Inverse folding.
């Protein structure tokens, strides 16, 4: 049924039906949450050996007692482990604390306070701008906004950033200092950057000598199905163009082991690692090496990280399938909802009828279903067409999710009917 | 034997004797380290249950699943635990990662980038100065130097800072924005601030409205002997004078459990906690809650933190006693070395004959004994009289320490003899 071809009378009837359903949901006093990309308790259980068993030896391979102070850049075997997992150079890795977000923030702050590549600190410039791919990750936008960095929205297309637009902007404006990218299974669209687009990011000419790509590969191995997407090696491509110093590469085990107590890393070119360490040495004596070892031992004892990620996928994929099947049933050819079918990551990004995202989220909230706030996927929380909503199906269990999606479908339709009747 | 009353001939003879002893040490190929305040392996063993046993329940008291994301300020019971340990208000605590140093750096950076108390960011000012108590902690000086903050040395006296001097400076110069304090068993002198001096820090009039005291209570419960020193409650005193917003209070379990994998906190007035969180929310979703619970469970299962600290003292006190007894034997009335007998903390601060600290440390190094670099206890690494050396007796085992102190004594005497023969 295409909503857009209904008469006002038909819409009114439909609205009455939907309101009846909606009321019944409201009466049920639901408490459902699809707002954040949180692993479910069953996913967390996969890593419980980390908590219930002893960690084994607390000596690193080189004899370092991991209990004591020291080792600013993290243990060698931890760097090697991440390097093997993601195809990186272990020498160019610094292991952080429990969150790559914190490493991203620190990298941004260092550019802001101290500058990079011998250029002025960004705080000393009259204006600093960043390219923000939309829809995108609210926490990236948040840290830019907190610093007063001007955010320029550029569309994230099906195969990655709108590179024509970006090349034009960064070539001509030296105040544009960087871009945040989630290159694989992007938050929230699930987009994977094509090899060609990664190449263009590596190759592009930037007016700013200290232009930075914050390569947040948060979902680097978080495939939902067997045939995972492949991401081009940005460092290798940068080497071709002599632009290695523009990349900060981030990753963490947050959605692999336990989000609260994982380990993270930043990778960069050798000169940039040196630059990071030159300031980081005043910030900390070193991050939690015990946890670095604990997580390494866990993967060795539990058949490796790839096998572990398959177990996550076995729990996650049915949830994504449920939501997507329901959308197909309820919204195919409806004209009021479009969505992307991701192959990994933690989100399903949908677009409602223009001007209906806020209303849909509000209706859901009133019925006991919390979604990510409408607008959150855009800089300054302002979605220009008020249509994008980020759905996070990972946390609820299947039966809860079923109800949650039903509620969402009714709210989305009701918001659309209201909108169409307004006109 | 007073070196200062020896004739040149006597000094020459003495020097020859000392050089002979020194040569024998050099031949032994020693590898001793008294450079950093690191707990010894035996001390670390006290907390091995943290590693070898399961952590128990991963649910917080309020039902929070500590494995997942969230709880920016840390778990309630962790805040309560620290509050109970140190006499603080649990509502005014934010739990951090594995290092209070990192929390100190972050607090400094926030003042630098965003400003505090509604005042301009420090980075926007033509000059920012800090008072540095000397001798002091090199890592505090390091982070100030990295930001280009001008360090003004003020003497740390036997009962705390030279308050007359400080009051005069902060009253008249609005570019003086803060001071780092290690108020109990100060690094390196072991000094404990008198109640009167804490009161004066709370009461003093500052030209800068956003003056900050970085109250690094690193050794807050690290007593060596039964009769521990007491520290006045700075927040309570500040309340009397309406100056609560000037204090950032730091603490960690680094030297209680394992330095690499402890937990830390910052405490401040309610408005300052709010100010911290307003920016911190862009930096992290929350620190390691599993570790917060793990450490809490450990203390409950191991008879509490006070009993645990006594076990540390039982290992540490004999080491301090050994060094101090040796100094008494070797240097009493020698005129070439003075020292302070600390009642807690991790260091013994000594003063050599003027101009002999660097030479002593260099001689030790050559004989295989690493000490903290001479000058490290002063801003910019410059000890104006080249006399202060920080001795860290915690790490070596007793027999190693015995040799290390012997080497130190010979080197110190040799440096003094050389100096006196020069004149």
């Amino acid at each position: 049924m295409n909503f857009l071809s209904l008469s006002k009378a038909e819409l009114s009837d439909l609205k009455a039906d939907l309101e009846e359903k909606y009321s019944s949901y409201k009466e049920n006093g639901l408490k459902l949450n699809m707002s954040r990309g949180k692993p479910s308790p069953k996913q967390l259980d996969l890593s419980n050996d980390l908590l219930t068993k002893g960690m084994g030896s607390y000596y690193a391979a080189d004899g370092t007692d991991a209990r004591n102070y020291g080792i600013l850049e993290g243990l060698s075997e931890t760097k090697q482990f991440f390097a093997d997992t993601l195809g990186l150079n272990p020498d160019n890795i610094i292991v952080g604390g429990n969150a790559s977000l914190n490493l991203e923030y620190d990298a941004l702050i260092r550019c802001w306070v101290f500058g990079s590549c011998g250029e002025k600190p960004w705080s000393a410039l009259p204006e600093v701008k960043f390219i923000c791919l939309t829809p995108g990750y609210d926490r990236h936008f948040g840290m830019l906004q907190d610093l007063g960095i001007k955010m320029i929205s550029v569309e994230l297309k099906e195969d990655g950033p709108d590179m024509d637009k970006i090349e034009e902007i960064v070539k001509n404006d030296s105040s544009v200092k960087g871009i945040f990218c989630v290159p694989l299974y992007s938050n929230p669209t699930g987009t994977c950057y094509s090899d060609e687009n990664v190449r263009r990011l590596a190759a592009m000419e930037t007016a700013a000598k200290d232009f930075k790509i914050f390569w947040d590969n948060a979902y680097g191995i978080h495939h939902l199905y067997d045939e995972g997407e492949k991401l081009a090696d940005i460092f290798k491509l940068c080497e071709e163009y002599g632009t290695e110093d523009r990349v900060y590469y981030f990753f963490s085990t947050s959605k692999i082991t336990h989000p609260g107590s994982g380990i993270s890393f930043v990778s960069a070119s050798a000169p940039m690692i040196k630059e990071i360490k030159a300031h980081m040495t005043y910030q900390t004596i070193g991050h939690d090496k015990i946890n670095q070892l604990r997580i390494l031992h866990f993967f060795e004892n539990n058949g490796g990280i790839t096998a572990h990620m398959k177990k996550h996928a076995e729990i996650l994929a049915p949830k994504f399938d449920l939501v997507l099947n329901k959308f197909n049933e309820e919204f195919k050819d409806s004209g009021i909802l479009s969505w992307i079918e991701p192959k990994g990551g933690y989100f399903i990004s949908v677009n409602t009828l223009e001007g209906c995202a806020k209303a849909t989220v509000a209706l859901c909230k009133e019925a006991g279903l919390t979604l990510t706030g409408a607008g959150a996927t855009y800089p300054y929380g302002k979605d220009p067409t008020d249509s994008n909503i980020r759905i996070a199906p990972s946390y609820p269990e299947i039966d809860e999710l079923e109800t949650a999606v039903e509620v969402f479908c009714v709210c989305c339709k009701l918001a659309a009917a209201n909108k169409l009747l307004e006109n």
Chain B touches chain A through 53 residues (CB under 8 Å). The mean pLDDT of chain B is 97. The two ends of chain B are 19 Å apart (CA to CA).
